[in-house]
Design the sequence.
């Protein structure tokens, strides 16, 4: 059976925090969850755009300012969410940037690694104790098929200070999303309530591609109708990871079509590199050091 939005269970009484939810995949994820009865928080950098997006969604929707390029903003957003929500059922790490020119976050991190991975790592750590007591709570992190493209965790140059390739830097950030999910799940497993799951949208028509190099943008635009899908369809793997009762911690969901580019969400596998436990644990330790955020859960063993 093909999984569709009709299979999203009722979400009454559940609180969902979604980063980057004023547009694209995040907006479609928020809209579907609110329609099913969830109280949805749009965690966005531009609150004016967030309020415009909230006005287009039927249901209980609020806006929280969050700039993932600033650890100060991440901490302020976590404090704001803690003040207004005593519990969180779903934390969906959706926001991201792609193929940006070489630049850094306010804390000096390479923009793609800092936004896509470190910002979400810090936010998750600062909010996790609001999820841990909640049955069937989930942390869903959105990765990409780009985690396979020239991707590795470059511990010798994480911030791309010596050389920079925008595609390789994006691949590193998306590989980090998966490694974070898998290590987080091992650490969550002994607690038995919260799970960590990953998803990817395939090739979706969103604003994320705005920084695609000009030489690539032309052919991609021509091929888009044949290889891509609307944001509403691209959000389905995330929605399945967030709501399907059969989902297990540590799983990864993406489209079922050719090369996982489009289609209905199904369980998929990530690259062999993404399952390297030693690298996952090293990345976790480095991420803690860079962000100054420690999670309220213990270290997992490789066999866990």
Sequence:
């Amino acid at each position: 059976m093909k999984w569709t939005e009709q299979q999203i269970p009722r979400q009454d009484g559940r609180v969902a925090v979604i980063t980057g939810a004023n547009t694209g995949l995040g907006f479609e994820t928020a809209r579907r969850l609110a329609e099913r009865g969830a109280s949805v928080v749009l965690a966005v950098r531009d609150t004016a755009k967030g309020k415009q997006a909230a006005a287009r969604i039927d249901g209980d929707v609020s806006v929280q300012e969050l700039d993932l390029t600033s650890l100060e903003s991440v901490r302020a957003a976590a404090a704001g969410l803690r003040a207004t929500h005593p519990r969180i059922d779903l934390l969906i790490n959706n926001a991201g940037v792609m193929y940006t020119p070489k630049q850094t976050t306010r804390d000096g991190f390479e923009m793609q690694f800092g936004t896509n991975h470190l910002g979400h790592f810090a936010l998750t750590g600062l909010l996790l104790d609001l999820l841990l007591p909640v049955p069937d709570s989930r942390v869903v992190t959105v990765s990409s098929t780009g985690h396979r493209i020239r991707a590795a965790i470059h511990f010798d140059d994480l911030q791309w200070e010596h050389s920079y390739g925008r595609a390789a830097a994006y691949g590193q950030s998306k590989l980090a999303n998966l490694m974070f999910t898998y290590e987080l799940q091992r650490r969550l497993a002994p607690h038995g309530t919260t799970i960590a799951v990953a998803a990817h949208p395939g090739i979706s028509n969103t604003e994320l591609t705005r920084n695609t190099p000009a030489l690539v943008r032309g052919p991609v635009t021509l091929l888009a109708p044949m290889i891509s899908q609307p944001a509403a369809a691209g959000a389905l793997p995330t929605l399945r990871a967030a709501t399907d009762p059969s989902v297990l911690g540590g799983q990864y969901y993406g489209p079922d079509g050719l090369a996982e580019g489009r289609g209905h969400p199904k369980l998929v596998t990530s690259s062999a590199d993404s399952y390297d436990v030693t690298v996952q644990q090293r990345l976790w330790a480095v991420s803690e050091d860079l962000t100054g955020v420690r999670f309220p859960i213990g270290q997992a063993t490789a066999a866990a």
